[in-house]
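Batch 3, record 17
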Amino acid sequence: MTVTTAATKDAQRAAIDESGWGARFKFFQPHNPAFWVYVIGVGAGAIGMIKYFGPALGGTYRLAVTSGIVFFGIYLIPWLIFLRRQNRYTAQPGKLLATGFVWGAVAATFWIALPANTALLEIWTKLLGPSGASTWGAGFSAPIDEEWSKGLGLILLIALAPRLVRSAYDGFIIGAFIGLGFQVSEDVLYAYNNATSSFGVGQLESSLFILALRGFAGITSHALFSAVFCAGVMWILGRAPGERRIGRGVAACLAAMFLHFAWDDASGLFAWSNFLIVVGPYLILMPLAIGTLLVVRRLASAKERAWMRELLAPEVEAGVIDPPLLDAVSGLHKDRRHYRKVVHSRHRARHLVESAGDLAQEIAAAGGQETERVAHARAEVLRLRGT
Amino acid sequence: MTTGIPGWVPVEHRWFGLDRRQMKPAVFVLVVALLLIYGWPALNAIVPWDNPTRAGDVLNLGDGATAVPPVGWQLEDGTLVSDRTGVSPTSDNVKLVKAGTTIQMTGASFNGTAAQFLDQVIRSEDPEADISAAPATFTTASGLVGVVRSASGSGGDELLAAFKMSKSDPAAAPALLVEVAAVPGEFQQVSREIDTFLRSITSGVNE
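Prediction for the assembled complex:
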C-alpha cells in the first residue's frame, strides 16, 4: 500500500501526459498522410536499392555485396546494444525506432541522398573545378542532403507518433537510429563501390578493408551526426512544455552539419599539414564530435530526467524508492556511478536502477493507475532493496 | 475534441479519408524530399561546364605518371599537374568530354599484365559486351606498352585501352584503364586527338 499526496500524484499524471510515455505505436495508419509519405519514400528507396545492387547480386560483384551485408550486419549488433542502453528515461518503443532505422537505411539513402548528392557534387565540380570539388565537394554536399534526408524521417515519425515523440531526448535517440540505418546502408554501398574500383579483384579483402576503415570511423559518423541534428530539430519545434529553444536547436543542427563537413573535408581543412591530414580526423575531429554529442545528450535529457523524477515522486514518498535510487534512475552517468558506490556493488546497483526503470515504465503504461503489473514491479524493487 | 479511440479521425478533420491535422508535416517532408531529389539535378542542368583544357595542360595520373589532354575538351573530373594536389595512381579518375565523345581514365591496383587487366575489366563490367576486335598492342611515345580493344554497335563506338604504369616492373605496378565512348559517327572526327592523347601517357618520372 502506498501513501502519496495529491500534488505529487497530479504531477505524476502530468508527466505521463506530457511525455506520452506508455503510449503504443501503431505503424499502419492509412488515415495518416505521413504514413503514405513514409511508404512512398521507403518504396522508392527500395526500388533504388534494387536497381543499384540488383545487377551486382546477379553478376560479378555478388561476393562484395553479400560479404558487405554480412559484415555490416554483424557490425550492427554492438551498435544496437549500445543504443538500446541509451534509450533510457521515457524509453521509445522498439517498433518506432525500427521504423526510423528503415527510413535511414532505405529512404534517406536511396530515395533522397544518392540522387541529390550526385547532382550537387557535379554542381560543385562545375563551380570549383574537378580538383576543388574533390577537396571540398563531399563536405559541401553531404551535410545538406544527408542530414536533411535523415531529419525528414524524424518529422514523419512525429506525425506518426505525436504523443510519443515529445522531448529533445526523443529526437536524440530516434536520430541515432535513423543515422545508424543510413550508416550501415552506406557502408554496404561503399563495400560494393570499392570492389568495382578494382574491377572485382579480391572482393572479400575489399569488403574487409571497408569494414575496418568504416567500422572505426563509424564511431563519429551518421548515428552521431543525426542524434545531434534531430535533438536540434526537437528544440526548434519545442514539443514539450518549456523546451522550445530555437537558438540552441539551430546551433545543434549547424554543429551536426559542421562536424559532417569537417569529417568529409578533413584533407582540405588540414591541407597545410600532411601530419594532420592523416591524424587530424582522429585526434581533433573525433574528440570534438564526441564532446559535442555528450553536451547535447546532457542538455537533451534534462526534460526527460525531470519527467522521471515526477513520475516516481509518489513512490519516493511511499518509501518504495529512496532518494539515491531516484537520483540514479533519473540522473546522468555520474549519478549512476555515485549510486554504485552508495550500494557498494556494481551488480546490485544495476539491478536496482533497472527495476526502478521497470516500475516507472509500468506506472506510465498504466496511466498512473494501480494495476497488477505496477504492483509486481513495485514488489520487485522492494525485494531487490531487501526491505 | 476527439473520440479517444486510436486511429479514429473526427469528421471535421477528414479530407478524402485522411487526417488533415497531419497533412502539414507530410507535405513538408514530401516537398523538401522532392526539392533535394529533383531540385539539385534541375539546377545542375542549367549550370554549364566551363573547364576547357588549354594548351600546356598536363594531367596528373599519380606517382609522376602524366598524360596530355587534347585542347578544348571539358575536364569534368581529374587533376592537372598545375593543381599541385596529391593523386593516387590506384584510385585516380579523369573524365574528358567533347560533344558526343567521352574519355574516362580509371586507375586501379592489379597484379598481372595489361592484357590480363583488360580481360578482368571486360569480365567484370559486361561479359556479354560485343567487343569484336582482337586485342592489339599499343605503345606510347614514352615506350609504355598497353593493350587496346575496340567495339562498334548501334549505340556508337567504344575503345578500351589498358596499361600497367611501369616499364621496368609492370606486373606489380598500378593499372590504368582508358575508356573512350562516342556516339555514332563521332569517333572518326576525334580519332586523331585520341591517338595523340593515348600516346602522351607516361609512366612516371622514376621510370
